[in-house]
Write a structure and sequence with these properties.
- The protein is α/β, with parallel strands linked by helices.
- It contains 15 helices and twelve strands.
- It has two domains: 302 residues, Alkaline Phosphatase, subunit A; 93 residues, Arylsulfatase, C-terminal domain (2-Layer Sandwich), CATH 3.30.1120.
- The strands form two sheets. It has an eight-stranded mixed sheet. Strands 9-10-11-12 form a four-stranded antiparallel sheet, covered by helices on one side.
- Helix 6 packs across helix 7 and helix 7 packs antiparallel against helix 12.
């Protein structure tokens, strides 16, 4: 009997070792405020990103990956919890998730993982996101200049304990403003090809040059992280994810529900498991990432544990489809006066509802100053100045500040979403379909719409209360 027990214990021990050996490590690298299609990987015509391009050649590029809110804190809360903004509680920037929330650290540590975060945190409360803090990358996204990065602690974390797999998020702070890192001389302003949603002024060209320099600087950090992983001997057993987060701090990108705000770059690499050099049109959302990691780690996904759904079948080229729709929202407080927005996309068309269309859209960081006479983004004033005698710039200023109640875009042929097709006869069917889907999603999230973009709703959320109800 004793021998049988010993044999059973040895067998169980060997089984646990096999399971542990099959669990991949996870390295998640995030840029900060980088418009996806400013990257060459997605058609960008200016920036140079050899390391991201190389990573894509070794893995799978998602053509249609999205997040729910084009702001740093809500999108990170979505990524780390697998839940939409109202489900996890963080539906406004500089707010917090519910105290009761759990996410990536708890869910993966329960499966034997060491879960760490280096760089920018920007999620609260700490009890809901108990990442091990890994030093070496600046956590302050507005520091001038960014602190030099050191890879010693990252190297130690990923090499420390080979008995337990690791999950490490490295949240970089580039190319978030201020655009002060990298070599802007590599991008002469006169030689740039500005995207059509960016007004062509001399100051805008100068600032766009500095933004591109930060993209290349960020790409260099990606290369150093991948080299560190390679030197650790863990590259073959590690799923690497790269994401560009939301759009940059230019009008029509960050803080909006246009495609250039919510569309994110997403690249996945796992040598020998995820096909190399491939692309997919499968729709995925940040809420889908955590359940996917849990599934890859061998965990059980409980019913209604996540808003997102795992997409491992897409990673392994077993499917070209995942979601039918991706969803987005924007609550402008505390970034400016109330201006709530909701959106849905099927990957080809995008439908947007601006819930207070009679108001003027104002985003204080992009359009204003801190009271010291210095503008946060000096290029915006040149847009306003030039709008008097340049109709094409006036059109962009008006597009940003005055928006209709409904917008519909054929994003597949109009990636910058400049032509509103709402109420066009040929588009009415898809317009109604997307409108119904958006309203259904809002109802499922107990989203009351405009009433959510108020100080009262924020106070209720901070107290863990759900005073808001869908109509």
């Amino acid at each position: 009997m004793r021998q049988t027990i010993v044999t059973l214990m040895v067998w169980l021990g060997l089984c646990s070792m096999v399971i542990a050996a099959e669990q991949p490590n996870f390295l998640i690298i995030m840029a900060d405020d980088c418009t996806y299609n400013d990257l060459p990987l997605y058609g960008g015509e200016n920036a140079r990103t050899p390391n991201i391009d190389r990573l894509a050649s070794q893995g799978l590029t998602f053509n249609r990956a999205y997040l729910s809110e084009a702001m740093c804190q809500p999108c990170r809360a979505e990524l780390y919890t697998g839940k939409y903004p109202l489900s996890n509680g963080c539906a406004w920037n500089h707010s917090a998730s519910l105290d009761s929330m759990t996410g990536m650290p708890q869910h993966l540590s329960a499966l034997g993982y060491r879960v760490g975060l280096a760089g920018k945190v920007h999620v609260k409360p700490a009890a809901a996101f108990p990442f091990e803090q890994v030093q070496g990358f600046d956590s302050n996204c507005v520091r001038n200049p960014t602190q030099p990065h050191v890879l010693t602690d990252v190297q130690e974390f990923i090499s420390r304990d080979q008995r337990h797999p690791f999950c490490l998020v490295v949240a970089l702070v580039e190319p978030h403003v201020p655009w002060v890192m990298g070599d802007a001389s590599a991008y002469p302003p006169a030689n740039l090809k500005l995207p059509p949603n960016i007004a062509d002024t001399a100051r805008t060209r100068q600032d766009f040059s500095r933004y591109l320099a930060e993209i290349t600087y960020m790409d260099g950090q990606v290369g150093e992280l991948l080299e560190t992983l390679e030197q650790s001997g863990n590259a073959e057993d590690t799923v690497v994810l790269f994401s560009s987060e939301q759009g940059a701090q230019f009008p029509g990108c960050k803080w909006t529900n246009w495609d250039t705000g919510l569309h994110t770059a997403l690249v996945a690499r796992w040598p020998g498991k995820i096909p190399a050099g491939k692309r997919t049109d499968a729709l995925v959302q940040y809420a889908d990432v955590l359940p996917t990691l849990v599934n890859l780690a061998g965990g059980e996904i409980k019913k209604r544990q996540y808003d997102g759904r795992e997409f491992s079948s897409v990673l392994f080229a077993q499917s070209e489809q995942h979601r039918q729709y991706v969803y987005g929202m924007h609550n402008n407080i505390p970034e400016g006066p109330s201006y709530p927005i909701r959106t849905v996309s099927n990957g080809e068309y995008r439908y947007i509802e601006n819930l207070l269309p009679d108001e003027i859209y104002i985003e204080k960081h992009l359009m204003g100053s801190r009271g010291n006479g210095e503008l946060n983004n000096p290029y915006w004033a040149t847009w306003v100045w030039s709008s008097m005698d340049k109709p094409e710039i006036y059109k962009l200023v008006r597009r940003y500040t005055r928006r209709p109640a409904q917008q519909l875009y054929h994003t597949a042929t109009d990636p910058y979403e400049l032509t509103n097709l709402v109420n066009v006869t040929q588009s009415l069917k898809i317009q109604r379909q997307l409108q119904n889907e958006l309203h259904s999603w809002m109802k499922s999230q107990n989203d009351p719409g405009a009433k959510l973009d108020t100080q009262e709703a924020i106070r209720a959320a901070r107290q863990g209360q759900h005073l808001y109800k869908a109509d």
